[in-house]
């Protein structure tokens, strides 16, 4: 690795008792020769993972540093054809988001979602890939955390001939939107500061929805206030005071359904027509999605990622129902 690391394994899980500080170490990778050697050198310190209680095992999480290292290597080693590998014809990269003078990786994140072909939602760690020096999406890699699936790495690829907008392209489209840029310029003056929330990339079955909140913090203030919510689908970008309003605009307009993406395509919403937004059932679902999204933002502010994941999962379920409603309406 670039930082000099040449050996990295998910070998040990350490449990710390929050009351008395007692440590318990469990061997998570019995095939790792290093931890096997340590276990022989210090008998009794490392215990088999099977001895961990089922309740604690349900909270095991795949190491984020290991996942980052694996995804960094996979940008090159996903190429298995020597004729493609050596010229680097299909090199990938992990997108970054620039803020101020520096850049940071903003898209490696935990999420609760139902993977394609699976029956129920699960807790995953995921990151997108884009082609080298390009911004469109090439693939997603996820690592599973739940039950017997713990540690499984799965990659979902987009067809190479398709063009699926990536996070950087969506950010650029947001910045180029005259309504949004004018409002940000108006707020971001002396006495106030505009804060952009993380761009949430939400896979929904075979769809991707982008959501970003805008906050305003007064000079000298410590607590920002959410002022707008931006929702993006492909080349459609809308901004409203609430997620409810943004979804209503997005679902109420005519949007062409993409046909050239096999997995995680942009949100395929049929034209709902003006009467759809007036449907009480439709409005109720949008309001519920707004409520869950607000609770997710509150959980994010305090670092409660379990609640955050649950609330985002609820948003995804409601959006699937909204898509079904608009699909039925558009086909009638």
Quickly list its features.
five-stranded antiparallel sheet; disordered C terminus; alpha+beta; 16 strands; 9 helices; 332 residues; six-stranded mixed sheet; 26% strand
Percentage of residues assigned to helices: 25-40%
Radius of gyration over alpha carbons?
22 Å
In this structure, how is the largest beta sheet organized?
A: 6 strands, mixed
Please, what is the oligomeric state?
single chain
Q: What is the element string, with H for helices and E for strands?
A: EEHEHHHEEEEEEEHHEEEEEHEHH
Poorly predicted regions are 99-103, 253-278, 328-332
Which percent band covers the strand fraction? 25-35%
Gross morphology: globular
Please identify the structural class as seen in this structure.
alpha+beta
Distance between the termini: 56 Å
- Number of contiguous helices: 9
Mean pLDDT: 79
- Count of DSSP strands: 16
Describe this structure in words.
This protein is α+β, with helices and mostly antiparallel strands and 332 residues long. Among the domains are: 1-59, no CATH class; 167-331, no CATH class. Helices cover 33% and strands 26% of the residues. The strands form 4 sheets. Strands 11, 12, 13, 14, 15 and 16 form a 6-stranded mixed β-sheet that branches. Strands 4, 7, 8, 9 and 10 form a 5-stranded antiparallel β-sheet that branches. A hairpin with a 6-residue loop joins strand 13 (207-218) and strand 14 (225-233). The longest helix has 27 residues, at 305-331. The chain starts with 11 loop residues before the first strand and ends with a helix.
């Amino acid at each position: 690795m670039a930082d000099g690391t040449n050996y990295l394994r998910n070998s040990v899980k350490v449990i710390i008792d929050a009351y008395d500080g007692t440590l318990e170490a469990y061997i998570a990778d019995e095939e790792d020769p290093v931890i096997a050697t340590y276990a022989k050198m210090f008998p009794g310190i490392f215990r088999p993972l099977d001895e961990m209680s089922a309740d604690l095992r349900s909270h095991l999480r795949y190491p984020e540093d290991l996942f980052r290292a694996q995804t960094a290597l996979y940008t090159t080693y996903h190429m298995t054809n020597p004729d493609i590998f050596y010229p680097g014809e299909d090199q990938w990269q992990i997108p970054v988001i620039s803020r101020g003078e520096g850049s940071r990786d903003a898209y490696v994140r935990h999420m609760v979602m139902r993977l394609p072909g699976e029956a129920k939602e699960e807790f995953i760690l995921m990151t997108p890939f884009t082609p080298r020096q390009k911004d469109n999406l090439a693939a997603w890699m996820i690592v599973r955390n739940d039950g017997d699936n713990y540690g499984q790495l799965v990659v979902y690829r987009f067809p190479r001939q398709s063009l699926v907008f990536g996070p950087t392209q969506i950010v650029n489209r947001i910045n180029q939107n005259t309504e949004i840029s004018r409002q940000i310029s108006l707020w971001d003056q002396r006495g106030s500061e505009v804060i952009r929330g993380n761009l949430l990339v939400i896979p929904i079955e075979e769809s991707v929805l982008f959501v970003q909140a805008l906050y305003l913090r007064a000079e000298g203030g410590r607590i920002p206030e959410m002022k707008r919510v931006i929702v993006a689908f492909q080349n459609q970008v809308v901004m409203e005071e609430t997620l409810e309003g943004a979804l209503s605009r997005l679902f109420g307009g005519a949007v062409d359904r993409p046909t050239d993406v096999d997995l995680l395509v942009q949100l395929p919403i049929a034209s709902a027509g003006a009467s759809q937004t007036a449907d009480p059932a439709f409005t109720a679902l949008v309001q519920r999605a707004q409520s869950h999204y607000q609770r997710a933002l509150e959980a994010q502010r305090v670092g409660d990622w379990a609640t955050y994941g649950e609330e985002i999962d609820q948003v995804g379920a409601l959006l699937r129902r909204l898509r079904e409603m608009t699909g039925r309406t558009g086909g009638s």
